[in-house]
Design goal:
The protein is an all-beta fold. The protein is 0% helix and 76% strand. The chain is globular and about 45 Å long.
Length: 127
Amino acid sequence: MIVNVEVKRFDLLEHKNEVLAKGKGILKGDFLSYFEESEERRFKHEVMFQKDHCVLKRFGDVVSILELHKNGESVAKVDSEYGLMQLKAKVVSLAKCEDRWLVHYRIYDGERIVVEQRLEWLISYVS
């Protein structure tokens, strides 16, 4: 099903908010795909969002995959021309409604938090 999707990122370490994507996407149950576009680049995103976990994939110059589990181990993977890097991640909160998906997570380098952000997907149906 084609939907309108707006993706917002709240960077809690840098205290910055931005709209990452706004446009059409494809929603099939727990799976959403859409594109993040700028003047020079276009990156495909795939999101699988369930009650207790979500998987976020971004395909661009590098491929990043976040496997986020509400109760259990989470991991952030970045695959680039230099190889695969894996970092520990932790879910702070995870919530899913029909028209709004939300995840707040942290990524760690050892014990140090290197990323803390909240992502929000606002989904509306195309009439």
